[in-house]
Amino acid sequence: MRIWLIQTGEMLPLTSSDRRMRTGHLAYELARRGHQVIWWSSSFDHMSKKWIEKKDTTISLFNNLEIKLIKSIGYQKNVSVKRYIDHWLLASKFKKQIKTETLPDIIIASLPDHHLAYESTRYALKHDIPIIIDLRDLWPDLFVDVIKRKIIKLLVKILLVRDYWKARFSMRHAHGLVTMMNYYLQKGSELSGRRNNKNDRVFYIGAEKSAIKTPKNIRKEIDFIVSSVREKFVVLYIGTFNRICHPKHLINSARYINTINKNNEIEFILAGDGEYFEKLKKLASDCSNVKFTGWINNDEISALLKIASVGVVTTNEPFIGFVNKVFTYLSGSLPIISSLEGEVKDLIQNEGIGYSYQYNQYEDLAEKILFLEKDRGLRNTMASNSEKLFDYLFDSRKIYSSYADYIENMNEKKP
Fold first, then answer.
1. For residues 113 and 46, is the Cβ–Cβ distance under 8 A?
2. What domains does the chain contain, in order, with CATH numbers?
3. Under 8 Å CB-to-CB from 122, ≥6 apart: which residues?
4. What is the distance, to the nearest Å, from the Cα of residue 244 to the centroid of all Cα atoms in its chain?
């Protein structure tokens, strides 16, 4: 088959050390099966806020997998007018460029972005092509949720009425709606009016098993951090420092632990980058037990997982989600301490893989870290439970093999 993947928010796996995310895993699995895969993306990297290319270009990763990059204007803040304009322009250029392309057999379009998903859906309907919408987030609510005043929130919702309609249109007309968690499938079905559709599925994000990797491409500064904490109890945070998920409360927990236990053997490693990075480094300037790595590659993630004792997910507001770092920690057989609500909280409670805490209670987070540091037997039991759960539910090899099967079967049932 000739398959189009439409996704602009992921890091592109352009080298062997680049971390593969959801579309990356799927692209490689489909290409491995012999399908011709064309991945439409942006020439601006959403994760690093840097240009991959400053023009429209096509990158061939190997014979049957290519990435088509479309240039727009870029942006520096995730929630901003400039990002909205960037995505709108990108979708407009995409609409023009695909007019001269060879028709695909099937399209998998991520939502967000709702502009691209909408243009992909219109194109699919016009040419009787099956389209799968992969719902990643409840856009355009991202732009509304940051507003606190009710009257302004209402006005912005009115301004974005066309955007909400585009998102609903894409989900309503999809041959299949795919999501990364049950909550999103429920919300997507309600918003689009496609309840109990037999083609709708949940495929978790998942991760590659960390234990099977031998880290090779590691920078000296990361290797130094790994060596310096090897005998300590290591609390690990991996992720993008964005508005919803950044480790402010974890830094406060580190400071709190320092005040009540001067001789503690607990070290905090905060791995990642993002718009809050410099502000958080300044916040942690008085915490000798906190180390920042900056952005890390796939091998460096594996190296940190091997020496970590527990993985932490912090949010700065109540949030229902299944973020990448959950799967990453589980891939390294780590217990998890998390402030996420919904399915993650249920898994932690039901599977015995860690602790939940309220998002703004850094003292509670600190106490749970101290408890696991003291009771290593319990930590090891939780680590074993994490390993079993990962192997059963979240191994990316199994997830994206099933996702690829689903796509192949969907094409066989095309209208």
1. no
2. 2-206+395-412 (3.40.50.2000), 210-394 (3.40.50.2000)
3. none
4. 13
Radius of gyration of the chain (CA): 22
Which tens digits make up the pLDDT trace of 185-226? 999 999 898 877 899 999 999 998 875 556 677 888 888 888
Burial degree of 69 (CB within 10 A; 0-12, 13-18, 19+): buried
CA angle at 122 for the pair 118 and 128, rounded to the nearest 5° = 140
Q: What is the pTM of this model?
A: 0.89
Instruction: Over range 52-65, report the average pLDDT.
Output: 93
